[in-house]
Write a sequence for this structure.
């Protein structure tokens, strides 16, 4: 983290904490949503539509849970002083990349290589 100023680290920390709180609040609202209770009425099409909507909601929530895990990991790395260092090659990740994607664990070059390998 030597390449980041304290102001930059504080900005990223605030961004991560704000994003985490928004995700958690969205999950809390989903739990309180009365449409999540059992649906007894309607015909097969109504029930199928509701099931499809619930399926999509749970997929989104799964992605949000993974993002919360990444946010927590980034916050832990900030606290331990290892944030902003590529976990693949050890290079310093530029502030601009961290600002754009604060949960990133790789420099741009390593991330591109990973994506190329996934597409092969």
């Amino acid at each position: 983290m030597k390449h980041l100023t304290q102001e930059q680290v504080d900005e990223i920390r605030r961004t991560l904490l704000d994003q985490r709180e928004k995700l958690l609040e969205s999950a809390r609202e989903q739990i309180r949503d009365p449409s999540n209770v059992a649906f007894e009425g309607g015909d097969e099409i109504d029930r199928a539509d509701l099931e499809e909507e619930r399926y999509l909601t749970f997929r989104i929530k799964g992605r949000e849970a993974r993002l919360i895990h990444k946010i927590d990991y980034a916050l832990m790395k900030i606290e331990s002083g290892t944030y902003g260092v590529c976990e693949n090659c050890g290079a310093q990740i530029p502030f601009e990349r961290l600002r754009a994607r604060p949960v990133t664990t790789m420099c741009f070059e390593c991330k591109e290589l990973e994506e190329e390998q996934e597409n092969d």
Notes: The chain has a mean pLDDT of 86. Residues 48 and 54 are 10 Å apart (CA to CA).
